[in-house]
Amino acid sequence: xxxxxxxxxxxxxxxxxxxxxxxxxxxxxxxxxxxGDILDDRFLITEVISRSGMAMIxxxxxxxxxxxxVAIKVPHLACESDPGSFARFRREEExxxxxxxxxxxKFIPVDGPKSRPYLxxxxxxxxxxxxxxxxxxxxxxxxxxxxxSLLCEAVQYLHDEGVIHRDLxxxxxxxxxxxxxxxxxxxxxxxxxxxxxxxxGLTPAMGTPDYMAPEQVKGxxxxxxxxxxxxxxxxxxxxxxxxxxxGDHPLAAMNARLLGDPVVPxxxxxxxxxxxxxxxxxxxxxxxxxxYPSAVAMQAHLDLPDQVSVTxxxxxxxxxxxxxxxxxxxxxxxxxxxxxxxVPVAVAVYLLLRQ
Length: 355
Hints:
Blueprint: E1 38-39, E2 43-51, E3 55-62, E4 68-75, H1 77-81, H2 83-97, E5 107-108, E6 119-122, E7 126-128, H3 129-135, H4 141-160, E8 163-164, E9 173-176, E10 181-183, E11 190-191, H5 214-218, H6 224-240, H7 250-259, H8 265-268, H9 274-283, H10 295-303, H11 313-316, H12 322-354
Antiparallel strand pairs: 1-2, 2-3, 3-4, 4-6, 5-6, 7-9, 8-11, 9-10
């Protein structure tokens, strides 16, 4: 794979002069760490950066290394006590510490015992791609293709290291004030040899509905091409200002991708080239075998779009019938409600009949 510059976004017009931004965080009370606290005699907490359902992220100064700014992710106590959530947190640190790529968030090792679970990463000045898209959408085609190309490079590195991200989305892409780009958040990442992509329900453990591949929705086995689909969904949003499938409920959006294709990009943004549309639709193929076989193959088209052959994917695309989406959505809801009741009753009846 080609070597890129240290400021890969310097020629991307929409990423010039990116300001540092963190979404406001309202204090809920009960947090165990606060600005001014010192964690393990090393990290001086200076600011709350963000809060999710799983963890808090703080800005801190590393007092052992010239007070350099770092970010510290601390799981909520409820997550620490949940075996599944805590295992994902530990796996994120384990995966992060072995990665070393300029487009991937750098994890910082902490020697010695910790007073509580946490992980430490470099602190990034900038804003997420999601914030950029809130302010400007759609992005210029050239800029969108370049950003997607850099993400492909980062994802190919992950795949070469045996890691599948499984939660690629604009919120997990940081655009740096210095013209750099970073891929974040490995809480759902798994090794390529552990390819069971689960769908336990509408929880953070399954990924983000707008960017999930069809196989994630169905709970089938996934591989590196699961990440290719998510890259296609990000590119679709950058080029059109919309996610590929939208609905009043996450189930509607997820079911739609099982039954049809997204609105072709040039209907939403007529200024797009047929080649850019072809790249997006290939990445978003419902059948994984019809997608790009690798991130590097997708990157080759992103870097040289003029050489992409237009195969008629846009003409063959069809939107899912609303009644089929509705039927599948409510069938899913019905199963979720009925199965927990019917199965225990059936077992009880079976045991009674055997007596």
